[in-house]
């Protein structure tokens, strides 16, 4: 039975860094279970959580069994229904008995739920449920920790001599992220001033991190600012970051622009950073200040959609960076820890545990309660479950489309990047650009798809204009999507507009990346 308690410890305990494997194999929590069993239980359960949640809620087992917490119920019922040997506990164990007491009702709800999925057999069901999952690759290679050196305050060479003085420099990302890491670091081949360090490298207490000289930002997350500004030698105007908090891309853009700012005293480029959420606006301002990004003008509590494109202060805006809220389905690379879709107890009947093991039981229950009390924010946080939720995606895609469409209203704009840390096509290639935008900015998308509603299918050239990143491959990034729209300047080949596809080759870089929006306490992605 310790297997299930150990799984709860891994998923909710204090050791919250690193991959699932490193958490299990490197745990100092005195786990009693075999690591391989634990890993198998957690990773398998992650495939079926949403389905099991339905069964658990309909059977109301949580209402009748106060000792069974929501997370425990998922783990137990996973084994009850899907594991060869059933629940790994003696027949007399209270938790096993708690499940057995509701066996008939659970089985009935399980069968009904299976049939609702139109699956004739359990094997069919397993296949269908596994196919419905995206984003977690439990066999993925370890990902490095990406660190952007904030060139507003420091440089790679200065950091090599100070923070990374004890590190040995290696040439390949794989040598940083692989097993037996040690203190190795590698400078990135695509994004300037970006460094990869081992995933367990502890930087958050270093002076450089605390002083804003180092920013923890996934490689893919550096692509938008780099694509937008890194190679545009004709850049003359101002920038709007439409969805800016916590500000990693804003400060990256600021750093790139600083290196360009006219040294002859002419007007400096400005970055207007919008953030509609009040709390995040404060964080954004703090991060901007900490990074020394003096050319950033934070517009707190400002909905980008409410910005007037004809406002005099935006007349020089030539570049827009759009990184709106998304499902976060790509944010699984650094920590491949599943976030379970937990069942909800409709009428909590919590009873104080009694007996000699009371404190132990209380501990397990309180861990899960705390977990439930901080649910992910609906449209802001990485996907709570790895399941694709069509309704949620449709809602997000609607907002994302509006944001892209609004950016086109800034008529002086010559470049716009749109990015998400999502792997879902609905939020990426298929985001519906309204007809005007579509005509003006035709190059958008990848993966042979397009927008179902508008019937627009992406051309080969358009596909080239998109960059995708997938977690778990040798690039060492999280899942991400970015596209850069480029308006031809007057006199160019097509007379008015065409799209400059931001293919990797064009810019000697790759991918895009996303942000974990729950990291609000420092420069982290
Ligand atoms: C994915 S995060 C942005 C991450 C950020 N670009 C970075 O690199 O640190 C999306 C942010 O956009 C904000 N947001 C969403 N819709 C917005 C809108 N219409 N106007 C302004 N901010 C918005 C959210 O509150 C959230 O803070």
From TrEMBL:
Residues 135-488 form the SAM-dependent MTase RsmB/NOP-type domain. GO terms for cellular component: nucleolus. The active site is at 421 (nucleophile). Keywords: Methyltransferase, RNA-binding, S-adenosyl-L-methionine, Transferase. GO terms for molecular function: RNA binding; RNA methyltransferase activity. S-adenosyl-L-methionine binds at residues 243-249, 275, 323. Residues 341-390, 492-525 are annotated as: Disordered. This is 25S rRNA (Cytosine-C(5))-methyltransferase rcm1. It holds the Pfam family Methyltr_RsmB-F. The keyword Iron does not apply. Belongs to the class I-like SAM-binding methyltransferase superfamily. RsmB/NOP family. It comes from Cyphellophora attinorum. GO terms for biological process: rRNA base methylation. PROSITE patterns: SAM_MT_RSMB_NOP. Residues 515-525 have a biased composition (Acidic residues).
């Amino acid at each position: 039975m310790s297997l299930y308690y150990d799984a709860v410890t891994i998923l909710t305990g204090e050791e919250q860094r690193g991959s699932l494997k490193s958490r299990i194999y490197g745990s100092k929590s005195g786990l009693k279970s075999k690591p391989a069993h634990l890993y198998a239980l957690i990773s398998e359960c992650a495939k079926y959580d949403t389905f099991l949640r339905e069964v658990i809620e309909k059977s109301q087992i949580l209402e009748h069994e106060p000792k069974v917490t929501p997370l425990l119920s998922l783990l137990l019922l996973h084994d009850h229904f899907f594991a060869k040997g059933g629940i790994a506990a003696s027949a007399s164990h209270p938790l096993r008995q708690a499940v057995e007491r509701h066996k008939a009702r659970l089985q009935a709800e399980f069968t009904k739920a299976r049939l609702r999925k139109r699956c004739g057999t359990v094997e069919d069901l397993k296949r269908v449920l596994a196919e419905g999952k995206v984003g977690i690759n439990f066999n993925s290679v370890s990902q490095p920790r990406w660190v952007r050196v904030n060139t507003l305050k420091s440089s790679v060479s200065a950091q090599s001599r100070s923070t990374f003085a004890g590190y040995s420099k290696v040439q390949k990302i794989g040598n940083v992220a692989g097993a037996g890491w040690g203190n190795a670091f590698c400078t990135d081949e695509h994004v300037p001033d970006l460094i990869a360090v081992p995933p367990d490298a502890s930087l958050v207490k270093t002076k450089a991190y605390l002083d804003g000289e180092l920013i923890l930002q996934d490689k893919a997350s550096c692509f938008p600012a780099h694509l937008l500004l890194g190679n545009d030698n004709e850049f003359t105007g101002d920038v709007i970051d439409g969805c800016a908090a916590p500000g990693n891309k804003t400060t990256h853009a600021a750093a790139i622009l600083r290196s360009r700012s006219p040294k002859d005293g002419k007007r400096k480029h400005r970055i207007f950073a919008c953030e509609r959420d009040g709390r995040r606006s404060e964080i954004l301002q703090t991060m901007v200040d900490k990074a020394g990004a003096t050319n950033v003008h934070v517009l707190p509590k400002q909905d980008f959609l409410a910005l007037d494109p004809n406002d005099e202060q935006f007349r020089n805006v030539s570049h827009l960076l759009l990184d709106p809220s998304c499902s976060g389905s790509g944010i699984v690379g650094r920590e491949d820890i599943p976030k379970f879709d937990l069942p909800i107890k409709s009428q909590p009947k919590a009873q104080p545990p009694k007996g000699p093991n009371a404190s132990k039981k209380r501990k397990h229950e309180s861990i899960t309660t705390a977990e439930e009390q901080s649910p992910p924010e609906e449209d802001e946080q990485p996907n709570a479950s790895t399941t694709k939720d069509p309704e949620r995606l449709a809602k997000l895609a609607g907002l994302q489309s509006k944001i892209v469409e609004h950016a086109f209203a800034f008529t002086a704009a010559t470049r716009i990047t749109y990015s998400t840390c999502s792997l879902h096509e609905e939020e990426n290639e298929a985001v519906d650009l309204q007809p005007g935008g579509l005509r003006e900015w035709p190059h958008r998308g990848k993966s042979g798809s397009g927008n179902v509603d508008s019937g627009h299918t992406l051309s080969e050239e358009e596909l080239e204009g998109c960059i995708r990143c997938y977690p778990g491959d040798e690039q060492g990034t999280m899942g991400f999507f970015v596209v850069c729209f480029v308006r031809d300047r007057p006199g160019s080949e097509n007379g008015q507009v065409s799209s400059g596809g931001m293919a990797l080759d064009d810019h000697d870089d790759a991918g895009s990346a996303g942000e974990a929006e729950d990291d609000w306490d420092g420069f982290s992605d």
